[in-house]
Amino acid sequence: MQVGFGVLGPVAAWDAAGGAIALKGPRHRAVLARLIIARRRVVPVTRLVEDLWEDPPPGAVGAVRTFVAALRRALEPERPPRTPARLLVTEGPGYALRPQPGAVDAWRFEQAVTGAATLPPADVLERLEEALGWWRGPAYAEFADEAWARADRSRLSELRLHALERQAAARLALGLAAAAVPGLDAHVAEHPWREEAWRLLALALYRTGRQGDALAVLRRARTLLVEQLGVDPGPALRRLESDILHHAPHLDPGAAPAEEPGATEDRSAAVPSVAAERVWAQAAAAYDRTVASGARARLESTVDLLRSLAVTGAGGLQAAREQRVAAIAAAEELGDAELTARMIGAYDVPAIWTRVDDPGQATRVVAAAERSLAGLPPGTHPAVQARLLATIALESRGTRSARGPQAARQGEEIARGLNDPALLAFALNGVFMQTFHRAGLAPRRDEIGAELVALSARHDLTTYEVLGHLIRLQARSALADFAGADAHAAAADRLAERHELPLVSVFTEWYRALRLAAAEHAPAEAEAAYRAAATRLGGAGMPGLERGLLPLALLCLRLRHGRPAKADERTDWGPYEPWTRPLVLLAQDRRSEVTAALHRLPDPPRDLLFEAVWCLAARAAIAVGDEETMARAHSELAPAAAELAGAGSGLLTLGPVAEHLDDLATALGRPR
After folding, report:
1. DSSP one-letter string for 415-438
2. CA 446: distance to chain centroid?
3. HSE-up of residue 67 (Cα within 13 Å, Cβ side)
4. What separation in angstroms does the CA of 664 have from each of 637, 667, 672?
5. CA 358, 353, 398, 615: dihedral to nearest 10 degrees?
6. Continuous segment of H or E residues that includes residue 43
7. 102 vs 396, residue with greater confidence
8. Mean pLDDT, the chain, as a whole number?
9. CATH number for region 1-172
10. pLDDT, position 48
11. Share of the chain above pLDDT 90, in %
């Protein structure tokens, strides 16, 4: 089991499925944090005692050993008694934590920032947006006052500020000056002594047509530095001020970069891009001049911008998700329930994948939506309530809570009573996400997709028309109608190309790999297609889809062609690890452990891979004769007897569910 550790925020640990590991009390977390800071080196017990207590009690050494023993049980629950620990080890006079490479979020963050130094701007932006998203709060948050954490906290905080500035510089290099301004404005307000941040903000303002604001920013920076620190601005700030005053050509956002020798110029292709950027810059500048800084209209306009950002790809979805939570918090601070409700409900971005990308953010959005519902004044238009209910249904997907289906039904009922096609499309998206309470519901989802396509085509709701086609692609795949699924994939691709929706092709490319996997004769070709499709996931901003998906798809491909799972403990199965582990144990000839692993299986999430993971469990149970698990799998899978296992995801398949049911019935001695 690969354990992950987090120190970019409160100290935390997660198991291979992404679930939080209980770390008991604050001193347990302090021991873990102190060992992470040591970076795999041994920390003597005496040093741990000194760091944990200002005035150590008589039994301090024994207490540290108790904390370590408890941490070991939490981090390696499957380790047999009296066998050596592999993660939190004893060496010489103390202890060391030996996590796998990349298991600590702070170490990954350092590698990402360092590695971005030599990348082109587009790749820098993608990498840093992902890396900055790993921060959950101040580093080692609960140990801010501890001397042993101070140096690492300071170093990581400085690195984060540097990454934010590198991110802004990449946006400027890509012609995204207007998008860089809000983040830089907040950055200099929080860290007014960072000259590079002031420089980037002034340059971004200049490039959006706000020369006066750019010069005002530079004057503000000079005043702060002189009056508060007694120093003059550095040469970079002084040079920028002079360049702005003289309209230096290299500051022009439309200035062409130097061409490489032999490069072919295509001015006809370049002109629309530059013109579009200038229109954007001028419109943004006019908005800033016209709409007051604290106006509530700015918050509502922010949601409109985030909706567009969420479908752009290249990190836009992740950035939109993060800023959405901040925007909701800002609205709640104003104490206006109707404004907050509009802010929450206006983010009607279509969703196709049934596992949320950030469970913590989803929980916060649901909580805010519930608070808004409770606080709506009498007379509020029912559409506001319907949007909040649809939001709850969407953000509750994959859970086993009764609230999600209830909210979906209520939102749909209200939406059908109003003449608002966009609202009905949003509500239907929530209904779709709550149609996974049992197996075998592909026909119902196909009906939802068909209604979405027809409704959206009539009312020019492009993104929901795409969603409808993707839902039908999944449903027709589950029903083994690949000709129908092909037609919906092609329709989705046409709309995506026409309306610049790059994330759509992530799903259609995976679907085409599934088509090859469903064939009986092309395993090598299917594997190559899956590996190619997996490269599209990095940076797409959909971690709920990305982690563990490629290994799972390849495992299903192997099983379909009569080959066992690979016996590789290093494979990152992501959230699918509990269901793949019994098959990995079989491949390692550890049959005695398989039944125990099967009996530890949690209830599968209510999502698009519900049938697939039950089929994985069924195969392992048949192999070891585990009748309890076989009976349960048969009961869960029976409603999907007419479907292809896993194909409803549009990503992978384990073949006809009926074949798995026959195998289970034979093993249980039941009639087939």
Report:
1. HHTSS-HHHHHHHHHHHHHT--SS
2. 27
3. 24
4. 10, 5, 9
5. -130
6. strand 43-44
7. 396
8. 87
9. 1.10.10.10
10. 93
11. 50
C-alpha 645/C-alpha 187 separation (Å) is 49
Domains 1-172 and 175-253 alike in fold: no
Domain 175-253: CATH superfamily is Tetratricopeptide repeat domain (1.25.40.10)
Residue 201, Cα to own-chain centre: how many angstroms?
28
Contact 239, 215 (CB under 8 A): no
Report d(CA 528, CA 535) in Å as an integer.
Answer: 11
Amino acid of residue 586: L
Q: Measure the CA–CA gap between 323 and 318, rounded to whole angstroms.
A: 9
Segment 328-384, tens digit of pLDDT: 888 888 788 888 888 888 888 899 989 888 888 889 999 999 999 999 988 889 999
| Cβ atoms 188, 194 nearer than 8 A | yes
Q: What is the 3-state secondary structure (H, E, C) of 595-652?
A: HHHHHCCCCCCECCCHHHHHHHHHHHHHHHCCHHHHHHHHHHHHHHCCCECCHHHCCC
User: What is the separation of C-alpha 392 from the centre of its chain, rounded to a whole number of angstroms?
Assistant: 18
Q: Cα–Cα distance between 13 and 86 in angstroms, integer?
A: 16
Token code pair at residue 315:
């990190």
Does residue 581 contact residue 571 with C-beta atoms inside 8 Å?
no
Helix axes 382-395, 359-375, angle to 10 degrees: 160
pLDDT in tens, 210-235: 888 899 999 998 888 887 777 778 88
Long-range contacts of 619-625 (CB under 8 A, 24+ apart): 619/559, 619/583, 619/660, 619/663, 620/582, 620/583, 620/585, 620/586, 620/594, 621/582, 621/667, 622/663, 622/664, 622/667, 623/586, 623/591, 623/594, 624/586, 624/591, 624/594, 624/595, 624/598, 625/667
| Chain-centre distance for alpha carbon 266 | 37
Contact 652, 516 (CB under 8 A): no
Q: Where are the domains of the chain?
A: 1-172, 175-253, 293-392
